[in-house]
Design a protein that fits this description.
Helices cover 50% and strands 12% of the residues. It is an alpha+beta fold.
Length: 301
């Protein structure tokens, strides 16, 4: 039987932080007497979840293997976890269980050509594919124009492939590109935290988190907060070096093209009949011209 990854520290920190964020008033408990620490006490969580204090204490110390889904549900409800946080807790429990079958090692998988065809067909939207580590693994021309600061950054890998986490935390100029750098950095960390819960054995992910934790104090602070995000989307504002200010909506979609690697398709669009749409069209025209020049140079060489 294969030994499961030791994620007891993640379980302990996650549950303890969520417990500390709740007040007795939020869960309907009377408030009396002085509290030495903020948030709920362990025995209060245990009572509300319908388990013994000893049992919950053991759970919060990271001993989650073998815990039933009903009990996890009760703990999630008591701690008022969001849907993403609940999913993360169940992922941690699943990863802690002994596995009779060897776990398949995650490895980079080439995307089928039809994915690139899909991206190229979106001429007025910036569309790209990322893996769970937030590497950009496929793009259309408008994405390369919109996110040119990422592609021109010193944080790209040896093949010129950008990674959002490395860009936000290791490139000081990223704060000039993002209108709300703090929000982008927090979201990125929360996405990596959720991915680490799903795939604790991902060596490349562990190496990325280790690099960011070593180099970036900003990342370490956010990682310690144990925030989790899985489903996201909304509005982002950029200061593009060529197009100027841009306000765009974005929506990530799961892209189930491989059983060995998680992929997400993200699409950025501008609200119709706005200056943002005009600026995005300008970028699209510039990207198309640049792509044509590249193709012509390749044919002539």
């Amino acid at each position: 039987m294969e030994r499961s990854p030791d994620n007891r520290a993640d379980i302990r920190d996650f549950l303890a932080r969520r417990r500390a964020q709740l007040t007795p008033e939020q869960v309907g408990l009377p408030t009396s007497g002085r509290r030495r620490v903020p948030g709920l006490r362990r025995e209060e969580v245990a009572v509300l979840a319908g388990v013994s204090t000893e049992w919950y204490t053991r759970l919060e110390k990271g001993h989650i293997s073998g815990v039933s889904e009903d009990v996890l549900d009760a703990v999630a409800r008591t701690l008022q976890l969001s849907e993403d946080e609940r999913t993360y807790l169940f992922d941690l429990a699943r990863a802690a269980r002994p596995s009779a079958a060897p776990r398949r090692r995650r490895k980079t998988t080439a995307l089928p050509p039809q994915v690139q065809w899909l991206l190229d067909s979106m001429t007025l939207s910036a569309a790209y594919v990322t893996n769970g580590r937030l590497d950009i693994v496929a793009t259309n021309a408008l994405t390369r124009a919109l996110f040119s600061p990422l592609f021109d950054s010193h944080t790209t890998d040896q093949h010129g492939r950008p990674n959002f986490a490395r860009y936000w935390f290791l490139d000081d100029t990223s704060a000039d590109f993002a209108d709300d750098w703090d929000s982008a950095a927090t979201m990125t960390t929360a996405l990596l935290r959720a991915e680490a819960g799903r795939y604790p054995g991902d060596k490349a992910l562990r190496e990325l988190i280790g690099e960011l934790s070593t180099v970036s104090a900003e990342f370490r602070t956010r990682w310690a907060a144990h925030d989790v995000r899985i489903h996201h989307g909304g509005v982002k504002r950029f200061h593009h070096p060529a197009a100027g200010p841009l306000t765009l909506t974005y929506q990530p979609l799961d892209l189930p093209v491989s059983a060995q690697e998680a992929h997400s398709l993200t699409i950025y669009t501008a609200e119709p009949n706005t200056p943002d749409e005009d600026r995005l069209k300008l970028l699209a025209s510039w990207a198309a011209t640049r792509s044509l020049e590249t193709e012509t140079t390749s044919r002539d060489s």
